[in-house]
Write a structure and sequence with these properties.
Helices cover 73% and strands 0% of the residues. The chain has 88 residues and is an all-alpha fold.
């Protein structure tokens, strides 16, 4: 149960605060690079326990596919995005 609360809190910070940090650091874009998201999470001090959700929120499906190719343990892009939508 506590993991669910932690996950929801982290996803909320990704959804509400990370876009502001990305925009400030890299300008306003529809999608960002994986490296930009990773650096922003680290620089802003966000918890990176669920970084794959931030990737699903802010990178393109194509780039996410490249991440999935490197890391077979990642959930599917559509599955992550659906879970994010269900939270909010």
């Amino acid at each position: 149960m506590f993991n669910w609360i932690k996950k929801r809190t982290i996803l909320k910070s990704y959804a509400r605060q990370l876009p502001l940090f990305l925009k400030k650091s890299y300008g306003k874009h529809k999608r960002y690079l994986e490296e930009e998201i990773r650096a922003s999470i680290q620089q802003a001090g966000f918890d990176n326990s669920f970084i794959e959700y931030a990737h699903a929120m802010f990178i393109s499906r194509t780039e996410f596919g490249g991440l999935k190719h490197k890391n077979k343990d990642l959930e599917d892009y559509d599955t992550l995005r659906k879970e994010i939508a269900d939270f909010f």
